[in-house]
Amino acid sequence: MKHILCYFVIISISLNACSHNNESKCNLLLQKANNNLYQFYASNDTLSLLRAKSYIDSIDCNSFKYKVFNTKITLFMLLNEYSAGIEYVKTLNSTDFHNKYQKNMYLKSFEAMLCEAQGDTIKSNNLYREIISEIQLYLDKTTSKEALADLFVIKSKIETKAEILKEIELLKTKGKYDNDFLNAVAKMQSENNENSVVIPVKE
User: Fold this and answer.
1) Which of residues 21 and 100 earns the better pLDDT score?
2) Structural domain for 126, as ranges
3) Which of 36, 96, 157, 168 could form a disulfide with 52 if both were Cys (CB 3.0 to 4.6 A apart)?
4) What is the pTM of this model?
């Protein structure tokens, strides 16, 4: 009996060691993916994006399902892989996101980008308007800095910087959000990166 127990203890330790080694490998792959993503922003070298995609696709740890979310979404956008982005977001549950509107936001954003790439700007703009309405409905019921940031990221797709900055100035007069946060949102709009960083899901 002691030999059997000893055997199971050894097997358990071995499995835990393998699991730890696998997690370490996945951490390293994620770090390499993000490093290459930063290199792309610094150099605009598409090869950095492809290397980042290769590293992120090599991660097979279940616990990393949501840790890779931001990087994967960003890569789908930068590589114009909109259909793949749609299929990826479909694999996630609505309850995995911080706010209930966010899964639809990502799905419709990828669909809008796909439409735009195909020359259908009317459908693209309509999809962005749908997203804006959904986020606004959420904000009507609660105060959320995260949701407000999402709102202005989407609005930047169909509104001018001047229009958005005017809206932000109006928000300052209402006192619902602190001015430091609104100034940060305004700065983000001024820098206006069309592939804005998305909000992460829960880990």
Assistant:
1) 100
2) 66-203
3) 36
4) 0.80
